[in-house]
Amino acid sequence: MTLKELIKNPVVSWMAADGPEADIVITSRIRLARNLAGMPFPHLMSEQKVAEKIWETISKGLKNSPDLKLVSMSKLTDMERQMLLEKHLISPEHAEVVSPYRGIITNKTGSVAIMVNEEDHLRIQCLLSGLQLNQAYRYADDTDDLLEKELEYAFDDQWGYLTSCPTNVGTGMRASVMLHLPALTMTNQKGAVFNNIAQLGLTVRGLYGEGTEALGNFYQVSNQITLGQTEEDIINNLWTVTLHVVEQERNTRERLQSEMKYQLEDKVWRSYGLITHARVMTSNEALALLSDVALGVDLKILPPIPRQILNELMVAIRPAHLQATGGRKMETAERDITRAQVIKNTLNKIRSDRRDKND
Amino acid sequence: MTLKELIKNPVVSWMAADGPEADIVITSRIRLARNLAGMPFPHLMSEQKVAEKIWETISKGLKNSPDLKLVSMSKLTDMERQMLLEKHLISPEHAEVVSPYRGIITNKTGSVAIMVNEEDHLRIQCLLSGLQLNQAYRYADDTDDLLEKELEYAFDDQWGYLTSCPTNVGTGMRASVMLHLPALTMTNQKGAVFNNIAQLGLTVRGLYGEGTEALGNFYQVSNQITLGQTEEDIINNLWTVTLHVVEQERNTRERLQSEMKYQLEDKVWRSYGLITHARVMTSNEALALLSDVALGVDLKILPPIPRQILNELMVAIRPAHLQATGGRKMETAERDITRAQVIKNTLNKIRSDRRDKND
User: Fold this and answer.
1) Of the candidates A125, A110, A129, which has an alpha carbon nearest to the alpha carbon of residue A6?
2) Considering the domain A3-252 in this protein, what is its CATH number?
3) Out of B263, B273, B280, whose CB is closest to A274?
């Protein structure tokens, strides 16, 4: 798949929901920040000649990696960049600031996406379904090794990898998981859980970064510290904490099912009723209802809906994806109408497919 | 149908929705207050002998009316009395105060229901579907004539019919209509409309009397004055006002459909989604959602649902009817669960019948 195909495709690798604990751990992500030795960091590369040289160096560095393709962000439309953001393959800043020297390198499935000249020269990201931090690290590390054969990184024996922002110095690694925690949220336990997480040097953010904490009951947990810990330590720490949170979420779900059976079923079925019948729907409401529906499917309150479909929908209902589906620019009001249609059609199709199968 | 059968039957005459304007005017009701000459009013009949005599007189007075049957309220269970109230055939007070000398006289279809020894010795009521005030008056008047052949009424040439409460003296008549006004309510116009109504000597109450004004967007409009106006005047006044309000409601619905198409469709479909999917539902929420569904059917936003079914549901979801359906006493929490089931099953059956028909 080329980048343009990857953007158009409703599915990228992480949506498959085929990883371990994929009902609660939506994604595992490893990101490695790397910079070229002897070159100014991106925010300092004011001269066009320098920028061109960095771009060329990276471009040449890919010659032994036929699976990886570099595309300049300036070759993408506004909508395509937004779609990459909505698919969680680039950062908001990288979607916004357009320059011929900013780029993205992807593999065929979108499991590896490297931002070029974002905050660092290279931000190697690997994004997988479920709790697969080790696997994601292996892919990111392999990619890193491939690139390192061709490129000379800014590396200091004492400090480790040098990065544009000092908080990334050292391993240059950020490991994160995206968790779906409806039961802990519903029962007001998330505060306590997140406090514990913070004390272990980890940070909690919302679905699309800071300030989106409660959106659809999705939470990103990631390491804060990149210096003085090995990659293995960081991953093990996050892995252990994640497993613990997953267990708490599962226990709370069980408790809800035994102690608040009717209220829980009512909440889930109401959300299903709303999401399959509404004619106008904001993005935030859709995420909240999709969260309830996912919980209902997990707990077998609702008939089965493939988790991949729910993961796809979470992205398909975002503004740029909606406009791509509709084939044109849309104002907010029209998007809200189209969003309701897209969800209704998708979920009704699953229901009628299921009926046909049962006939 | 005997009274017990009438109570059990989900349908009484007014629910048929076969009268004129029955989409907006749910019922027309005429009530005539009558008292026996030379007998103390019910609240003054402290001696048992007097009470017995009144009861016997009325009982004998029915001898030429084979269609009318008298039953003592003390022969009915609490639940049966509540069901009569929920069917709008008796008043809250008549359901509550049990005495062997309080009774109800009904015809086979429940279109005529006479309360015996409620506030007056006789309260002849006729309740029909749609805007049928003249027809309802004719039935009530015919019944009144039949009874008057056998009974001597307390009547004064100057004052007219004498009644327990002076506000009913004169014609002893109260004429009322039950209106479904979702569009006027939604657009905050009901205040202005009801002010106009009040200036014409009419009163607005809620579905179950005072204090239930906004319940399901149903409003009872009735005359206040019984003295100094003929029955014809009272009915003509109410009829004219009702037609005017119906026209305002229809105009507002049209305006909503042209100016707020998507919001209206969204509201209606959301309510339909909720009412067919919720697992727990209070009576008030059910009425509010049924109101939206009725509006949706009227405006052809939703596929057709016979209005009789919606009228039946409005009563079937009340506590006593729910418990009768369930065959046992239920606490509020269980009723809320049963209510959700009853509505869901009824509406889903209509949908699947419609599908079978279309196949």
Assistant:
1) A110
2) 3.30.590.10
3) B273
